[in-house]
């Protein structure tokens, strides 16, 4: 399927690895001029080179922390007049809410709520003026089905979701859709790192824990970053102009509900 977005410009945040990288790769495959950022220069530059070579299109790399004002300014300057914004950042640490200080909450809100809101604020008016825009927020399945030890994530991401639910109804008339893409368990570095910790706590080998955790899902496996990236690219396509203000859960059916 031709996604109809060749020649468009995108900024994909936190994209040297994992889900962000896969979104950048699928957009580049569709002919989009992509700028990616991440904090580790060597990784983000290597990823840009790899995607660029594989897809035959120049990919711009920027080393920055997207959760800081300077990082966002640099990312927007590198990406230019973007038509597509994929918001992403590392998730906050798990823990017990009794241990979290105000500062912990501010850091989580900065990373997983305010960063995305500020990037939307800096780009959405120009997208509306041009009559086309796609904004996808990578959040988490925990927005629909919260996990108690991920309270910082649940709170910050739900705040972003609520904010976007409101403004999406104002932007779509001028061609700009805003949607959330909610990952369940995807086989990325982040998930593998969590499994190492869980395996140690349970006295299991990593392989045993991987097997057991993936078997818990109705699909009997974890999601792949490629599946996630392709779905993101579809949400950014011309065909998805009437999908707006939605939160698409990709979890293999783990969240049990009829609709
Ligand atoms: P990942 O494989 O660990 O990749 C994270 C990427 O984000 C890396 O490229 C990392 O590079 C970059 N990054 C992290 N913090 C950044 C910052 N402050 N500024 C710029 N770049 C930053 O993680 P992932 O699995 O793709 O997860 C992506 C998001 O989805 C996270 O918010 C995660 O909580 C959420 N999520 C993931 C899953 C899952 O199963 N994978 C499930 C639910 C939710 P640097 O470290 O070099 O900056």
Question: What can you tell me about this protein's structure?
Answer:
- By secondary structure, the protein is α/β, with parallel strands linked by helices.
- It is 47% helix and 14% strand.
- It contains eight helices and seven strands.
- It has a seven-stranded parallel β-sheet, sandwiched between helices.
- The radius of gyration is 18 Å and the shape is globular.
- The structure holds NADP nicotinamide-adenine-dinucleotide phosphate (NAP).
- NADP nicotinamide-adenine-dinucleotide phosphate binds at residues 14-20, 37-40, 43, 65-67, 88-91, 138, 140-141, 183, 185-186, 188-191.
Distance between the termini: 27 Å
Largest sheet report: 7 strands, parallel
Instruction: Supply the number of helical segments.
Output: 8
Q: In one word, what is the shape?
A: globular
Oligomerization state: single chain
**SSE arrangement, N to C:** EHEHEHEHEHEHHHE
Number of strands: 7
Question: What hetero molecules are bound to the protein chains?
Answer: NADP nicotinamide-adenine-dinucleotide phosphate
**Percent of sequence in beta strands:** 5-15%
Structural class: alpha/beta
Assign a percent range to the helix content: 40-55%
Question: Whole-number radius of gyration?
Answer: 18 Å
Average of the residue pLDDT scores: 97
- Provide the spatial order of strands within the biggest beta sheet: 3-2-1-4-5-6-7
Are there runs of 5+ residues with pLDDT below 50, and where? Answer: none
